[in-house]
Amino acid sequence: MNVVIVESPAKAKTINKYLGKDYKVLASFGHVRDLPAKDGSVKPEEDFAMDWVVDRDSNKRLTEIANAVKGADRLYLATDPDREGEAISWHVLEVLNKKKALKDVEVKRVVFNEITKSAILKAMAEPRDLDDELVHAYLARRALDYLVGFTLSPVLWRKLPGARSAGRVQSVALRLICERENEIEKFVPQEYWTVEAGLKGEAGKSFMARLFAMQGDKLKKYDLKDESTAKTAAALIERTPLTVSSVERKPTRRHPQPPFTTSTLQQEAARKLGFPAQRTMRVAQSLYEGKPIDGEVTGLITYMRTDGVTIAQEALNATRGMIQSRYGDKYLPDSPRIYKTKAKNAQEAHEAIRPTDPMRTPSEVAHTLDADEKKLYELIWRRTIASQMESVVAERTTVTIMNSDKTAELRATGTVIQFDGFLSVYQEGRDDEGDEEETRLPLIKEGEMLALEDVLPKQHFTDAPPRFTEASLVKRMEELGIGRPSTYASILSVLRDRSYVHMERNRFIPDDKGRLVTAFLEKFFTRYVQYDFTANLEEQLDHISAGEIDWKKVLNDFWTDFKPKTEEIIGVRNAVVIDALDEFLEHMMFPDSKDLEAARKCPKCEDGRLGLKTSRYGAFIGCSNYPECGYTRQFGTKGDEGGEGASDEPAVLGADPESGEPISIRTGRFGPYIQVGEAVKGEKPKRASIPKDMDQGDIDLEKALALLSLPREVGTHPEDGKPITSAIGRYGPYVAHDGTYAKLQSSEEVFTVGLNRAVSLVADAKAKKGGGKTVLKELGEHPEDGEAVRVLDGRYGPYVNHKRTNATLPKDTEPESVTLEQALEWLEAKAAKKKPAKKAAAKKKAPAKKK
Fold first, then answer.
1. What is the pLDDT of residues 345-358, one digit of tens each?
2. Are strands 662-668 and 191-200 parallel, antiparallel or unpaired?
3. CATH number of this structure's domain 2-130
């Protein structure tokens, strides 16, 4: 007997079918050991020894694996083909050695890039030993992340109340977002003008041309700085006749993009499908692990964590075959396209993300996929096919036009696509550039006289740099060499979960807490949030993977500088830290102020000086005359936005229909809020915070009453009759049912979410909480109550479910083969077992005899 270890139970079932009865395939369910979240788990003074712990669930699985391995001929470690997969195999091996389960058992490592029968059998025929260098790179990364997090975070907690954590890559990504916000705040729009002319050729067709040069000098962007200069320029164009002085036609070619890597897949899925990075990776994992095709579960895409842009020769041939058969010879280049990655620190050991069988079109697999899977599979399939197609052939035409005295030169440009090439299948999305529409010009000849139809001076203003989307942030991190593709999704998620950033129109906006943390790190830990430093560490980890550098030397070099720096900052008095940040963040606290000292003057007492203050709840702006002057303002708001004590007249929205008390909007140190009446004898009046994703200016009496009335009862759950409520908590909007909480997309949804959606969200949250219950097969309705009977995949394997009754599938029963009749029989047997037997009444004890 041979034992094979993979990561997920779904993968285990599929691979077991491929390998047959001589193999037993077991799942580790991901990582089996971790560093405990406490100080001292990594010990630099003991040559960076690490204390690993196994949680209770993993311990059960490892015991099962150990029992299976005892007496086996071979153990194949078949976890994912990357650094994390190598680490999981190493952890499993370490535990099995401690359990003394490997006596006379040959241990081999196998890797495969796709879950198809041919790929699995090929991998099993080519086993290798565990890659020690990859394991060392994992250990170095894990130790670095731990040492930064557990050394730097306590410094933050002491110096910045309300701060949550810092991380080696997380803090650098946050800095990118905060720096972009600083650029936007400092940006001053600059006015400029352009002049366009509507022209008509001899053939009677109209087109537009733009003023390109005056008096023989090419116009620069800001040469026409105001309306007056624009009108002067427009007058030159009116000196007709206008003559075509030249027509230049140039052929151009546009080449396809390479197939997807992890980061480019995340970027395109964000642009085209609106998927956050985590959602993209979750759906890709499902496609990789496989779907039932022709009676057999088959992986539909290759491994989704990769930097590589190459495609295996067999897949390349199949892709070219698909292009030839579906689109014709003219769409197929003479030779295959070979790509090389441009990303910094890329590891090209793996293939690009592609369909396992390019001949398997999206329409052919649609029946076995859910909505998200269909969209992502089609995106991957189209990108892969397009990457091997012929280039787009276009003709770019530039027409130069002169006025009568040659004092004004106009130009019109247009592009005509002559052969659509790969665009017949795929066009890459864009982040912030303008539309890429092709302008088509009419047929124009040199020397032709043109009629002037209109002259249009146009005013423009320069735009501030755009905030990052998930796609553009991932792209920027990849360009800088920060983090790895497999970590991008979790990094962005952590920033949101820590309330360091929030999303608005799918763009990152730093919250005050995030900006304060970034300022602290930039001021006191400058080196460790520099982009080059972080990228250099990534390079060193890659050198460890290649066996070119000792992993403990990298850790020692880092720790030798980092530890003394943290001890130095811990020794700095908090008042000194706050004063330094007060100066560092002056531009943010008092934007648009030319006289900063005047801006710092307290608007309430007119004697105090405003500055950065901290409390147990976070940072705010307060008066130096506290407690005599109680003026405070939320950190990050402008002075004219008011503050507590800044105005004695809160914005009254109307009267509370129940009490008659006035309902008003006020601003405190933690942001705007709604209040009913005034404080009486020390009792706090009823209040409700205004969520960050609601515009304060849009709050009217009706909306204020709705916020004050929360939590809202959505309805009762159809299964247990218990209420489902919606509310807004410290971590955002949510629905709740019987101790289970599920996030809502926006605060507005708290007031509109219906019962069906709430039930669905709660079910999803419960599934995640319970290890994830995937529906493997819908069997139909129960004959007694019409409720669904399904085969589910739980954390301990497949089972049938009806309402609150679950029954495990008998051993060796395939989920796909289960019928409704079988399920009803198993459920009935399980329900009978549930009925408790009546206990006999306990006999009363005889009273103790007196001695």
1. 445 457 899 999 99
2. unpaired
3. 3.40.50.140
Backbone angles phi, psi at 328, to 5 degrees: 100, 165
Pick the CATH number of 191-253+393-461 from 3.30.530.20, 2.70.20.10, 2.160.10.10, 3.40.190.10: 2.70.20.10
Contact yes or no for 90/71 (Cβ under 8 A): no
- Positions annotated as catalytic residues are 303
Question: What pTM does this model have?
Answer: 0.70
Lowest mean pLDDT among 173-187, 270-284, 427-441, 768-782: 427-441
Contacts of 623 (CB under 8 A, 6+ apart): 602, 604, 605, 608, 609, 610, 629, 630, 631, 632
For range 42-62, the mean pLDDT: 89
Among the residue ranges 327-336, 376-385, 526-535, 587-596, the one predicted with the least confidence is 587-596
- From CA 191, how far away is CA 229, in angstroms rounded? 12
Express each pLDDT in 307-321 by its tens digit: 889 898 889 999 999
The percent of residues in the chain predicted with pLDDT above 90, rounded, is 43
* Residue 651, SS3 per DSSP: strand
pLDDT bin (cut points 50, 70, 90) of residue 771 is very low
Confidence of residue 795 (pLDDT cuts 50, 70, 90): low
**DSSP structure string for 653-721:** EEE-TTT--EEEEEEETTEEEEEES--BTTBPPPEEEPPTTS-GGG--HHHHHHHHTPSEEEEE-TTT-
Give φ, ψ of 438 to 5 degrees: -85, 130
Is residue 621 classed exposed, middle or buried when 0-12, 13-18 and 19+ CB atoms within 10 A define those classes?
buried
Domain 140-186+469-577 has CATH 1.10.8.60: no
pLDDT in tens, 213-253: 999 899 999 999 999 999 999 999 988 789 999 999 999 99
Return all residues near 235 (Cβ < 8 A) that are at least 6 apart: none
What residue type is assigned to position 275 of the chain? F
| 743: amino acid identity, one letter | K
Question: What's 262-390's CATH class?
Answer: mainly alpha
* C-alpha span between 146 and 682 (Å, rounded): 46
Burial class (CB in 10 A: 0-12, 13-18, 19+), 843: exposed
> Would you call 136 helix, strand, or coil by DSSP?
helix
- Sign of the four-CA dihedral 756, 761, 767, 773: positive
Beta bridge partners of residue 633, listed in sequence order:
621
Domain residue extents for the chain:
2-130, 140-186+469-577, 191-253+393-461, 262-390, 712-769, 774-834
Reduced to 3 states (helix: H, G, I; strand: E, B; else coil), residue 317 is helix
